[in-house]
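Continued from yesterday's entry.
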Amino acid sequence: MMMVEMSSVSSVLLPVTELTDHLRLSSGFADDGSQDAQLESCLRAALAAIEARIGKALFQRGFSWHLSHWQCPTEQVLPVAPVQSIETVKVVTRGGTEQVLDSGAYSLRKDGHRPAIEAVGTLPNPSRGGSIEIEFTAGYGADWHGIPADLRQAVLIQAGEIYEAQGPGDAGIAVGVAVLIEPYRQVRIGGIGG
């Protein structure tokens, strides 16, 4: 299995001004923008850390997921939430021939933790050596304000920790961030979960 982010979060969507205010960098000084690149880097690192911890995409963007077979012939749980839409589902032969499944053959089960593709009948498996490719859009918001407020606060706190530590390698998940993101983490019972 391999998931690829088809588009990254645009720089114009990142809350550099909010992070500047959070860190009080512009207090008493004119903002010349000289630290914007470093702040953007801290925001990207914070987003990545939080998304990895909770298994959710904060900003909406496209993903492509490749797998060798279906988890179950009637449903396939998707690796990230919340999924907004399924663009295409393809079954690809070992030789590279693609069969795009009709969108009427499946539906999206929207779920905050375990969204899934549900088959109307059964999902066709690829031949030996083939694969399945699912393209979908996932994420809470198309912009910063579409993301839940507690997750926005968690991003600012984590980005601030990274900024103060002078890089993501020196900053773990801050205690305040762990508290804010806890409701978004998937509960795993007995080690079973997706």
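--- second protein ---
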Amino acid sequence: MKNTLSAYENTLRNYLNRYNFPEAEDESFITCRAENTYEVFCDARRRGIDVPTSDELAKIVLFQDLDITFDDVIRDILAEEFYDDLPEYEYDNVIADMEYLLEEYRELYDITPEFMATPEWEAMKTELTGIIAQFINGNGL
């Protein structure tokens, strides 16, 4: 991601839309939050903090108080990776059927904006995608 004001605006807008936050329609909220985020990034860089760490600090501000649930993450993975294999109305059933596989991850990861700004976030999503793929293939879905 580029560390520009417009990039932070786009990232926030996409996140709000993806997870159906009412703030997705509030352009002043998006602009204000993105400006604050960009200022945190620039301030961190002025203090000599490297780009990845500065971006992590900025994303904490960007996603502040915009928490999602673990099931939102699973629905997002299903929508992104398995849209050809599984209709959306089946997502909740698949999540319920996979509960025994997901329980460990629910306990292991606290889905917060701070966590979402770390490299572990992408690693978790990749691992969950593999588990979901095995479940779908193993159950003929």
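The chain has a mean pLDDT of 87. DSSP finds eight helices and no strands in the chain. Will compare against the first tomorrow.
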